[in-house]
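Structure in, sequence out. Go:
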């Protein structure tokens, strides 16, 4: 036990630390760190036979379930085309790619379109090569006007 404490004391600096100091350091400095969930808003607009979901904010592991629930709600109606507007996304984590890919598979051909990629979203989607899989449009209007593929 003494050997492992010596390594901890060396790592923390030249001061001689007691086990109580290590506990106090952990309690005061590490536990109080902020762990807030990134803000994510999803706004829905119905347009003829399509639903546009405008996604705003950060998408990561902490709020991916919220995004998935929004997509699932729209996909309950099998005749609805889902247009996902990512123009307001400031961070797109890898979990968001999984959500987009899973939703694309469930929506079927022409059932899901991605539009207005922010620079943050574009970079991640292009690096992952999902731009070769997803139907991506420069604007929501172009996504809405695209021919609907029979499903």
């Amino acid at each position: 036990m003494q050997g492992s404490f010596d390594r901890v004391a060396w790592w923390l600096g030249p001061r001689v630390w007691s086990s109580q100091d290590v506990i106090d350091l952990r309690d005061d400095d590490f536990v109080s760190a902020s762990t807030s969930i990134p803000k994510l808003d999803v706004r829905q607009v119905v347009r003829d036979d399509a639903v546009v979901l405008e996604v705003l904010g950060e998408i990561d592991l902490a709020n991916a379930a919220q995004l998935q629930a929004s997509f699932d709600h729209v996909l309950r109606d099998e005749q609805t085309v889902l247009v996902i507007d990512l123009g307001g996304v400031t961070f797109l984590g890898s979990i968001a790619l999984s959500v987009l890919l899973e939703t694309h598979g469930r929506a079927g051909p022409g059932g899901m379109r991605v539009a207005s990629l922010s620079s943050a979203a574009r970079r991640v989607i292009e690096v992952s090569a999902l731009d070769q899989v997803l139907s991506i449009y420069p604007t929501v209007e172009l996504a809405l006007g695209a021919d609907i593929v029979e499903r």
